[in-house]
Structure formats: C-alpha cells, structure tokens
C-alpha cells in the first residue's frame, strides 16, 4: 500500500455530537455533559476515531481539549471493560510526555475527573526519574491503569523483565508534545520503545511492519479486550508536515488518521517596535523604550509572559522591569533552566495561582504544564521560528474559547523585518517542517543492550524490530552490525577472549543476543536516556541555592566578577568544583553581562520569506541615487534631515509605494514602515539590496584587512557550515588562517591584504563539488565534533554517565571527549559513535544539507560583486558581532545601537525627532 | 642527556633509557569498569618501547612508576618484559603499588640522579637531582580563535626533571609553572619546542 492511503485525514467528525454522547459510557457521558456541555472541535474530530480504535495524530491549538480528547476513549474503554468484568490488572494506557513536570501535572488533572466520576477503582500512576523506589515497587505489584511517564522511564521499564507482564494489556500509547519529541533523539528512543510495546502486546512480529494493518477500516470492532491492538495517539499543538509526523508516530507501513483542528478562537498578533520613524536611534533608546512600553502593557494586564531568546536576556529584562516598576517588583519573576528547581516550581505555582503580574523567561516556559491564565505573551527579539512563535503565543488564553494575544517586539531594525514576516507566517500557520533524526546510532546501541536483557531475540530480529520505527526505517544492516560489533567489545581488533569479559552484549550458542553478565543490565538501567547536559555549578548565596550556571561559564569568570542570576546581582567570592559562593552586589554594575545560552538559528522558511520581503521592497524602491562620499566622513551634519534627496521626487514616491506595501501586506504601522524603508533605501544607496535574483558580495577594505560580506540568507547553522568550508578553502588557495564570522543573514570573511581574492577566486570558494570533504577537513581540527562526541559517547554507553549508582565527575566525562576521541580518530575512524558525532555536528548543529543546497544554487546565480566605501547597513550587524562577543560593561544591544547611530544616524532621511517619540 | 620525541629520556653515558607512566592495561581496566573503550594501547606501548630499545641499545631501562594502570595491565606488561633482554628497573607508582614487580622499589639512585615516581616527596641526596613522572605534564596553546594545541612535555629545572607520560592514552595536564627558571620542552613528533616561563615561544 502506498503511504498516501495509510495516512488519511479526518475530514469531518465521524459522529454527530448526540451520537458521540451516545457512544461513550453513560457515566462518562453524563459527567462530560455536566462539566463541559459541549465537545470542543478537537474532541469532535478525534474521539470517534479513537473509539474506533484507529491510531491518530491530533494537532490543534494549545488549550483546545486535546488531552481530554485522548483520554475520553481511554476512560470509555476502562468503564466498559469494568462493567463486563474484563478490567485488566495491568496497564491499559501509557501516556508519554517529554517533561517530567508535565507528567505530574497530568496525573493531577486526570485524578480530578476520576474523583468527579466517583471511579475509585481507577488507578492512575506516574513514573519518572524522580519516582522513589518504594513507589516503583508498589506500582509493579499493582500496576496503574493509566500510566504517565517519560520516554526514558518507559524504555527503562520495557527493559526490565519483571515489568513486562504489566504491559501486556496496554491498548493506548499517547505521546504528548509530539513535535518536541520528533525533533530529537528522545523521539527515536520513544518510537523504538513503542515497537517493543507492540511486541509485548501482540506477540513477536516476524513479518515486519505490515502485519498489524488490520486496524484500518474495521471501525465497529468493540472487542477491545479480546483482540489486542495498540492504538497510538499523538498530540501536538504546532507541527508540520502532518504526514511525516503521523508516519513517525505509527511507524512506516501502518495506518494513521490525521485530525487537524486549526485555530477556532481568534489570535491577536502584533508587531511592536520602538523604532518608530528612526532606523538608527541613539544608543540606549530602544532598550529604554521597550522597557517603558513593556511596563505600560504590563500594568494594563493581569498576567504577562515575556520570552527572551537567552537566559541572560531574561535576567536583564527581569531586573530592569523590577527597577522600573518597584511597586510590582515582587510580582515580576524570572524563569529559566539555570534556576534552582525549587525556585522554578515556586514561580510556576505562583503563576498558576494568578499571583504574578509578569514572568520573564528564556525558552523554559515554551511548552508543558498549564500555567494558568496568561493575558498576553510578549516575545522580545524575533522568535526565529514560526512553530516556536505559535507555541509561545498558545501559552496565553490557555483555556478553551479564550483569545491568544501575542506581541512580537523587534529590538533593532533587522529584527523588525524578521518579526513582520514571522507574524504574517503565524497568521497563515506557515510552519517549518520538523527535522527528524535519522538513524541515531547511540540510541541504537542503547536499544540493542535493552533487548539483550531478555536473551530472547536474535540480531536479525532486533534489526527487524528497530527498522519498524520511523527513525530507523532506512538503517542498513552493515551499520547495525557495526554497532553490534562495538557493543560486543570488538571494534577493529576484536579480541575473542576479552569479549565475554568486557562487552555489553554477546551472542550465545543459540544465536540470541544476551548480556555477558548481570552488571551490564544494572549499569544500563542507570544510563538510559539521551539528555546530555553540560555539568552545572550550583550557585549559593549564603545558605540558599540561587541557581545553576554552566561550568564553561564559570571557567571564564574570576572571583570579584559581578553577574546577574535569578534577578539578583551577585559577586563571585569563591568557586569550588561544583559550587560557587556569591554575595549580593545589588548596586554594582555587572561585569559579565552574558553567558552561554543557546542561540537559536533562524528557521529556513522564515529566511526564505525575509528574502522575499527584501526582493519585494527592492522592486518597489527601484534604483536610488548612489551614495557618494564626497564630504568628509566626520562631517555628518550635512547629511542630516531629508536634505540630500529632497529634490528627488521619484525616490520619495517609490519610498511611499514601498511603505504602502508594508502597511497593507505586512500590517506595519506607518512609523515602523518608514524606519524599515529608510534602512532599505540607505542599503540601496551605499550598496544594493540583496534579493533572490543574485548573490550580493560586498568588499570593504579596512587597513590591512579585506572584508567580504556574502549576503547568504539561509540561517546561522547553514552559514556556519559554509563558513567552515570557506575557511578551509582559503587556506588551500591562499594559505594562512581566515577569520569568518556568521549570523542568520550572511557570512563575513575577513582576510589579510596578502590573501585578497578576486571574484573568480571567491567563486571557487563556493564550488559545490568537494564541499563535504572540505568540511570534513575543517572539522578534523575543530572542537565541534569533539564536543558532540562527548554526548554521543555517553548516550552510546561508551562512557556511562552513572556507574554503580553514582554520578561521575565532570572530569571523567570531559576526559572522554579529550582522549577517546583522539584515539578513535586515529585508530578506528569509522567507529559508529564517531560517525554519530559527525552526523550530530553536520546535520544538527551545522545545517550541512541546507548549506549544500545553497552552494548548488550559488553556481548558477549571478554574483553582484561590489566594493563599498563604508560598511553597508545590512552588513553592519555581522560586522559588529565581534564586538558583541567581547564587550563587557554595556548591554550588547545598546552598543550595537550606538554604532548603528554613529554610522548611519545622520545619513538616513528620517522624520523629526519629535515625531519619532509619539506613536 | 637526550629527550626522544617518542616520550623517553636517554642518559647517554650510563646508557639508561627512562620512561614514565606507561599505564599498561588502560583500555582493559576501563572496559572492566563498563567504559567500552577500543581495546587499544598496550600494543602501541610495546611497539614504541621495542623501537626505542633497538635504536639506543641501552644497558638498563627504568620505568618511573604507574607502569600499570590497574592490575588488569599486568598480563601485557609481563608479556613485554618476558620478551625483552634489557634489564628493567620498575619503580612503584600510585597506580601499581599492588603489582609484585613494582611494590618493593620506591626509588633508585644512578650517579647524580634519584629516580622515583614523584607522587610523594622524597629526600634527595646532596648534589643529586631527581627524575620523576606522575604529573603527565603538557604544554598548551590557544590562538584565541578556537584553535587549541596541546603537546606532552618534559619539565626541567636545576634540581628536578618531570617526564611526560609514555601512555598513548594520556592527554597530559597543562603545566602551570610556579618555579622560576623552569624550562618546559613541548614534544611534537617532529620537533621539540623549548618554552621558558614566563612564556615566550622559542624553538629548541
């Protein structure tokens, strides 16, 4: 069967509302009617499908009743089974969530209907890494009917023989927040666990993927308990493409229904920029305006949730808001992953109880637990992805029938274009496709060990099992065998006599995968999982745990340095290996304003839309009078106001046309439209506007340096891949090192004069052929792969994180990156874990596929190569980003603003200063 | 006195070859603990030692302690010793204190040199200097733009010489000198670089 026939849309609810009420168990029906009166659209679409025992991917906005849609059928089956005395003693439904907190929250949320229904017989249990041994033992003796867990805990239990009996009665597997699982290795892990669950429920499945397609069509089968069948339900707020995710959920070759219920409640999305008419305001202007506006909004609202993209951003905005609104300062909190867990949970609880007016977070509250009623979601700086933006905005009005209200705050002129494009794509639900990890070999290693615990499958059967999971559908047997050989203690110099002693698995006389000794199982149980966090240093203020910071950040600060954590300005007084002692330094200026936090790369769809916007504006602006630097550079006064082109009426009218376009198509305010058009016009006059039709390369000479700006708008991670290829090739062509800087919008190649290149040579840097080899050579000496290897070696069980119950020191794990990596590279360059680390680096950290795609097109694109007398406005951001990395005292955004202002402030023909300050 | 880039010290007059921190059985020890390292390293040690013995034809060889990583390395070490004709003095280290061949010899004196592992301070006779291992010294450089280089090193001052670890698994620990007049010899396979502290790069 073609996949198209297996994955089908639910075009309309299969049952009318009365029919649906009638289909549910009377108790449940009555309870639901009293509690909610009506089914939500998501429930209308989804419940009949699940009642008919069909696997289903349900995607609908946050707060649309997804979770209940999944559990209504579970409750129904449980109630009916109980009536006919068929209620199994084992687990009936497994609910998997990526977040522990979500798991606890859900258990509480399910307990409530169970109590209202008076179903005291219903057992609901949660199992995560935090569950105590006593609770675990109780759960095993008397398994809950509904089992709430995480991918790691599910995998762990499915690897323990004494748990298997409890899983034989499972009929539902519910995966929540599926989008976040699909994008990482935990998803691969969960789906392999699902295949094992399938075997436990249905018995061994020697024929592979298609043996249980009988669940399609047979809609009226009520014989739930007699005819075992595992219904998989995937829940997700924002995900695309649906067919891929559905196939990921059920595995290739199996049927799945897809229900997409789009926004029924209106969402209000606004773009706000403090720039007004000024593209290049004076330093500090934006930050002050943003804060003032934020303060004003916050006072009008009950509860505001503010997302910044970085932890340091969350800290600094939180701190400044508190200073700005001293009367509300106790009701403004900061939330991010570095905070102490206790502090975080406390903030979440207060948020839920409605005691807070604002929470400023990095990305930590993007998904998960119901955080109560949020009036408004503010995103400071562009969110870099449409799905992420929608996910964030869904946090407001987080209950049925309420309006989501989101504000995108553009903090500088480049951000403004990006925010406008994001807002439009959000309205159109133009989501970026998920990137599913293909064949993660470290998770495969864990899976093989997990199967060997049972001593019941051959390598052939294990291979067939993993291939049924979507992530491994293309896995080739030789690769599987290499992972197996690694686990057997082999590798290139397999020494038979050591194998029994030192391997993780071996193949016994009957050809079955078994463990060489029970200790391997114990070590394995402690190391299931794929999350490799950097080791964190606990920060203590007197006796209180303030939060945690990354070890790598700690290494770069010295005693006496002042930094901000958890909204407190603190001074480091003493640093130990795992703890740091600080004292309050409330009145001091931070000396270390930022620390490492993931910088999120721009999603590809968004990048393409920004290019479209640039192209559209360039067309409307038409040719503008080139900027001629005939006046001394420091004599900026001559350029002030609209003087330099007041006579140019056609320019004025084309600008007006471009502004109208922004206002009508992108919902810009007039002030913002003017600022953006000024920015574009200045770019057009100094250089030209880069569009989709050519590749703009600007050459700028600065002393002994030659800077080349390549306007490659494909996102930072793809640009990162290209930049490494360029650096490698510069070295081959010209010799010497090349300094390459990247951002989402382009690549800056800085060379010494002796390395200067002509157009022909530059084009050679961008040749598609041999790009992979150049990158491989470049990465050989870079620490990137080594860094990735550290995580892969832990997940792949080469250097277990925990041994005999004890967490191992960071030094031990650090060492893994350092030496094993070198030894493997020399000794066994095709070791599966080394390949995995390389894949991790090139496919996930760097976006090699997208980089290659660009190189492919660069050859046929005309190159617009021009020398410019000053750095063009579009190149400025990347030009100053080096400053951003090294500065200390000033807020980086402010510094960039100052530089922008100094560079172009006098050049642009903006409105009057007075006009700029009013809305 | 010569420093060989294969991480050995050659005392020409008494014809003594000195190596430190061989850590035989490093991979095997880790594998026994559950770290699935490639079974590699001991062959490398044996190969490098054999080549050194052939090139220098020493009268005597000294292993400066930590010859074994754990007792799991005894088999490989014994195997090597049984095949070599050169008399080998094995000083004990903190890793191999339980190995019968090593445990009884904490130090040995040859001419003006006192050889010991270096994990514990020992009295050095008047007019002698000590030659030790234990610290796995290395020299490291950063260019500030992401490139990092670390090389094993020999650290010498007037009264003391610290040998680099011979083990191919040893990454080395950057030597942060506090003693004035100390010289660090960073060892790459083709060249040895002399570094004086405070640091200025100079070739040997």
Description of the structure:
The complex is a heterodimer of chains A (919) and B (204). Chain A has 919 residues and is an alpha/beta fold. Chain A contains 37 helices and 28 strands. Chain A has an eight-stranded parallel beta sheet with strand order 1-8-2-7-6-3-5-4, sandwiched between helices. In chain A, strands 9-14-13-10-12-11 form a six-stranded parallel beta sheet, sandwiched between helices. With 204 residues, chain B is an alpha/beta fold. The longest helix of chain B is centred in the N-terminal third of the chain and has 15 residues, at 42-56. Chain B is globular. The model of chain B is unreliable at 198-204 (pLDDT under 50). Chain A binds chain B through residues 486-487, 489, 491-495, 498, 501-504, 519-520, 523, 737, 739, 781-783, 797-800, 803, 815-816, 818-820, 822-824, 827-828, 831, and chain B through 28, 31-41, 145-148, 168-171.
Layout of helices and strands:
The complex is a heterodimer of chains A (919) and B (204).
Chain A: H1 3-6, E1 7-9, H2 17-23, H3 26-36, H4 41-51, E2 56-59, H5 66-83, E3 93-96, H6 100-117, E4 124-127, H7 133-141, E5 146-149, H8 151-158, H9 164-167, E6 172-175, H10 178-182, H11 185-202, E7 231-236, H12 242-250, E8 256-260, E9 267-272, H13 285-300, E10 304-307, H14 311-324, E11 332-335, H15 341-352, E12 358-361, E13 376-380, H16 386-393, E14 404-409, H17 413-427, H18 441-452, H19 459-467, H20 477-487, H21 496-502, E15 506-507, E16 513-514, H22 518-527, E17 536-541, E18 544-550, H23 551-555, E19 562-565, E20 568-575, E21 579-584, H24 604-621, H25 649-666, H26 670-686, E22 695-702, E23 705-710, H27 716-733, E24 739-743, E25 746-752, H28 759-765, H29 771-780, H30 783-795, E26 802-803, E27 806-807, H31 810-827, H32 832-845, H33 848-858, E28 863-867, H34 873-879, H35 881-886, H36 892-904, H37 913-917
Parallel strand pairs in A: 1-8, 2-7, 2-8, 3-5, 3-6, 4-5, 6-7, 9-14, 10-12, 10-13, 11-12, 13-14, 17-21, 22-28
Antiparallel strand pairs in A: 15-16, 17-18, 19-20, 20-21, 22-23, 23-25, 24-25, 26-27
Chain B: E1 2-4, E2 8-11, E3 16-19, H1 26-33, H2 42-56, E4 60-63, H3 74-83, E5 87-90, E6 107-110, E7 113-116, E8 129-132, E9 137-142, E10 148-156, E11 160-162, E12 173-174, E13 183-187, E14 192-196, E15 200-203
Parallel strand pairs in B: 3-4, 4-5, 7-8, 8-11, 9-12
Antiparallel strand pairs in B: 1-2, 2-3, 6-7, 9-10, 10-11, 10-13, 13-14, 14-15
């Amino acid at each position: 069967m073609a996949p198209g026939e297996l994955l089908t849309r639910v075009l309309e609810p299969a049952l009318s509302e009365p029919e649906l009420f009638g289909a549910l168990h009377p108790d449940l029906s009555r309870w639901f009617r009293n509690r909610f009166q009506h089914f939500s659209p998501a429930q209308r679409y989804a419940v009949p499908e699940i009642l008919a025992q069909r696997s289903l991917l349900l995607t609908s906005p946050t707060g649309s009743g997804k979770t209940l849609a999944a559990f209504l059928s579970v409750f129904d089956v449980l109630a009916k089974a109980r009536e006919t005395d068929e209620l199994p003693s084992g687990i009936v439904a497994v609910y998997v969530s990526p977040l522990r907190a979500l798991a606890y929250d859900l258990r509480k949320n399910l307990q409530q209907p169970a109590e209202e229904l008076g179903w005291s017989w219903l057992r609901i249990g949660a199992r995560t890494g935090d569950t105590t041994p006593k609770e675990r033992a109780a759960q095993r003796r008397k398994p809950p009917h509904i089992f709430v867990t995480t991918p790691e805990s599910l995998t762990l239990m499915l690897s323990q023989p004494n748990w298997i009996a409890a899983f034989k009665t499972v009929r539902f597997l519910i995966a929540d927040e599926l989008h976040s699982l699909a994008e990482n290795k935990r998803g691969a892990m969960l789906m392999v666990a699902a295949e094992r669950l399938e075997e436990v429920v249905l018995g061994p499945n020697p024929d592979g993927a298609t043996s249980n397609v009988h669940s399609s069509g047979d809609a009226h089968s009520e014989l739930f308990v007699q005819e075992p069948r595992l219904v998989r339900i995937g829940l997700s707020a924002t995900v695309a493409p649906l067919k891929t995710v559905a196939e990921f959920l059920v595995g290739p070759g199996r049927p799945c229904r897809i229900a997409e219920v789009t926004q029924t409640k209106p969402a209000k999305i606004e773009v706000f920029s403090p720039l007004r008419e000024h593209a290049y305001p004076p330093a500090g202007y934006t930050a002050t305006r943003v804060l003032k506006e934020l303060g004003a909004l916050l006072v009008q609202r009950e509860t505001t949730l503010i997302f910044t993209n970085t932890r340091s951003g969350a800290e600094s905005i939180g701190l400044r808001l508190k200073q700005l609104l001293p009367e509300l300062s106790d009701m403004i909190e900061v939330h991010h992953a570095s905070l102490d867990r206790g502090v975080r949970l406390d903030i979440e609880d207060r948020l839920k109880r409605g005691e807070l007016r604002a929470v400023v977070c990095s990305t930590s509250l993007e998904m998960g637990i119901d955080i109560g009623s949020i009036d408004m979601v503010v995103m400071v700086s562009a969110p870099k992805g449409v799905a992420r933006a929608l996910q964030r905005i869904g946090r407001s009005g987080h209950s049925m029938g309420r309006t989501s209200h989101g504000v995108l705050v553009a903090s500088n002129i480049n951000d403004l274009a990006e925010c406008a494009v994001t807002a439009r794509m959000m309205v159109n639900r133009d989501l970026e496709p998920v990137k599913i990890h293909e064949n993660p070999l470290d998770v495969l290693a864990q899976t093989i060990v997990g199967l060997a615990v049972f001593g019941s499958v051959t390598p052939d059967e294990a291979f067939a099992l993993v291939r049924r999971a979507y992530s491994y559908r293309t896995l080739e047997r030789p690769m599987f065998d290499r992972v197996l050989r690694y686990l057997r203690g082999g590798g290139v110099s397999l020494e038979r006599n050591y194998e029994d002693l030192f391997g993780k698995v071996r193949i016994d006389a009957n050809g079955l995968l078994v463990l060489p000794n029970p200790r391997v199982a114990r070590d394995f149980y402690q190391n299931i999982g794929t999350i490799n966090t950097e080791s964190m240093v606990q920060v203590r203020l007197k006796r209180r745990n303030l939060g945690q910071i990354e070890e790598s950040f700690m290494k770069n600060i010295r005693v006496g340095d002042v930094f901000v954590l958890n909204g407190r300005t603190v001074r480091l007084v003493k640093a130990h290996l795992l703890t740091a002692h600080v004292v309050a330094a409330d009145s001091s200026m931070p000396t270390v304003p930022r620390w490492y936090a993931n910088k999120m790369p721009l999603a590809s769809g968004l990048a393409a839309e920004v290019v479209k916007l640039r192209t559209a504006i360039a067309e409307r602006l038409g040719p503008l009078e080139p900027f001629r630097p005939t006046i001394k550079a420091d004599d900026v006064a001559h350029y002030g106001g609209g003087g330099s082109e007041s006579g140019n009426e056609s320019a004025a009218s084309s600008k007006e046309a471009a502004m109208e376009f922004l206002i009508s198509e992108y919902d810009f305010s007039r002030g913002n439209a003017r600022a953006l058009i000024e920015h574009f016009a200045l770019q057009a006059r100094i250089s030209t506007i880069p569009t989709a039709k050519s590749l703009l390369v600007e050459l700028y000479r600065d002393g002994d340096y030659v800077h080349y700006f390549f306007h490659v708008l494909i996102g930072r991670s793809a640009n990162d891949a290209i930049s490494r290829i360029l650096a490698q090739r510069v070295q081959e062509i010209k010799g010497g090192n090349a300094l390459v800087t990247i951002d989402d919008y382009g690549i800056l190649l800085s060379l010494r004069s002796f390395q200067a290149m002509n157009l022909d040579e530059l084009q050679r840097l961008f040749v598609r052929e041999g790009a992979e080899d150049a990158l491989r050579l470049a990465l050989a000496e870079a620490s990137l792969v080594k860094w990735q290897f550290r995580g892969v070696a832990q997940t792949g069980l080469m250097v277990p994180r925990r041994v005999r119950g004890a967490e191992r020191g960071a030094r031990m794990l650090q060492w893994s990156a350092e030496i094993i990596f070198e030894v493997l590279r020399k000794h066994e360059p095709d070791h599966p874990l080394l390949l995995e680390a390389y894949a991790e680096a090139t496919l996930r950290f760097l976006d090699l596929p997208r980089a290659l795609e660009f190189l492919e097109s660069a050859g046929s694109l005309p190159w617009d190569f021009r020398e410019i007398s000053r750095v063009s406005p579009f190149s400025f951001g990347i030009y100053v980003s080096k400053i951003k990395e090294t500065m200390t005292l000033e807020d980086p955004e402010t510094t960039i603003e100052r530089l922008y202002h100094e560079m172009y402030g006098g050049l642009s023909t903006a409105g009057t200063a007075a006009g700029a300050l009013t809305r | 006195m010569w420093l060989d880039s294969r991480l050995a010290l050659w005392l020409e007059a008494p014809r003594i070859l000195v190596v430190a921190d061989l850590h035989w059985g490093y991979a095997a020890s880790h594998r026994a603990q559950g770290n699935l390292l490639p079974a590699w390293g001991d062959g490398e040690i044996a190969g490098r030692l054999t080549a050194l013995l052939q090139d220098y034809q020493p009268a005597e060889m000294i292993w400066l302690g930590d010859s074994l990583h754990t007792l799991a390395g005894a088999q490989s070490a014994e195997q090597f010793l049984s095949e070599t004709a050169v008399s080998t003095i094995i000083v004990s280290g903190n890793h191999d204190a339980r190995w019968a061949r090593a445990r009884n010899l904490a130090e040995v004196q040859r001419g003006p040199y006192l050889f010991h592992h270096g994990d514990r301070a020992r009295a050095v006779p008047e007019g002698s200097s000590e030659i030790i291992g234990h610290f796995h010294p290395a020299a490291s450089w950063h260019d500030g733009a992401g490139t990092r280089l670390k090389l094993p090193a020999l650290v010498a001052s007037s009264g003391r010489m610290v040998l680099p670890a011979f083990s191919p698994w040893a990454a080395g620990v950057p030597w942060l000198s506090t003693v004035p007049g100390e010289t660090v010899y960073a060892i790459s396979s083709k060249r040895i670089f002399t570094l004086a502290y405070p640091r200025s790069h100079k070739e040997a």
